[in-house]
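Please describe the entry underneath.
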Amino acid sequence: MTATLHAFADDAAPAGRLAAALGIACVGLDSHRFPDGEHRVTAGETTPTALLYRTLADPDTKLVELLLAADALRRRGATRLVLVAPYLPYMRQDIAFAPGEAVSQQVIGQLLGQAFDAMLTVDPHLHRTPDLAAVLPGAITVSAAATIAQALQGKLPADTVLVGPDAESRPWVAAVATPLGLDFIVATKQRHGDRSVTITLPPIGPRPAWLVDDMLSSGGTLIACAQQLRAAGVTLAGAAVTHCLASADDLARLAAAGIAPLIACDSIPGPAASISLAPALATAIRQHGLT
C-alpha cells in the first residue's frame, strides 16, 4: 500500500468517501479529552506516506488536535505527511487592519507548514492574497466550481441566472456558470458589520436565479441578495455554496427568507452538505503524486 488516510471520528464519512475514491485504507485517529480540556491523540498503524483528513470548521479546538495527530503519525513511522483540509480557516485576515492586530493567515500558515510536508484544500477564503502557496509553499488549492456545476447540471431552467454576492466572487461564479451555459451577474456589497451588509444588483429582469458563493457564514449576505432579487421581480430558486458554516438558527433564517433548496459541499458536515468533494480531491491527490 502506497498511502493511508487517517481521520478523526467526526470526519469519518467524508474521509471514507475519499479513501474509497483513492482505493486506500482509512484508519481512525483517537482523541481523548481530559477533564481540564487537554487532548490526547493516538494514531493507528500507517504507511510512509500518511494523508490526514481534517476539515477545520470550529478551528480553535481542531487545530490543536491536528498538530498532535501530525506528531502521532510521525511517531508511527510516517515520513511524508499530507494534510487534506477541505475547509481551511483563518485565511481572510492577511494584513493588520489596526495597530497591534495579529495577521492570522501568516500565523496559521506557518504552523501548518511546519507540521506537514504538503497540504490540499478547497476554495480557501483569500482576500488580497492571490495564491495560497504564498502563505503555505507548495499548498494545492482545489476549486469546487466544477463539482457544484455538475451537481446543478440538468436541474435548472435554461434562462436561470447565477448570482454572485460580491466582486470577489466573479471568477468563481463564472466557473460555475460556464459549463452550465448560464448567464451570471455579480452584486456590489458594502459590509457594515459581521451580520450587516448592503447589496446592490445590476438589472436582471423577471427570470429564475440561483445564488452561488464559496462560503456561507451567517447567511446575511445571501438573505440581502434574496431580498434585492425579489424586489426586482426575480424568482429565487435556491443557493449553492462550497463551505456552509451556518448554524441551525442561521439555516432557519435562510429558509424563512425563501432560500431553498440550499446545497453545499461536504467540506463541512451539516444538513446542507449534499455534494461530495471526494472525486475532485482524489483527482488532485493523484495528479500531484500525493499517494
User: Anything to note?
Assistant: Residues 145-266 form a domain with the Rossmann fold fold (CATH 3.40.50.2020). DSSP finds eight helices and 15 strands in the chain.
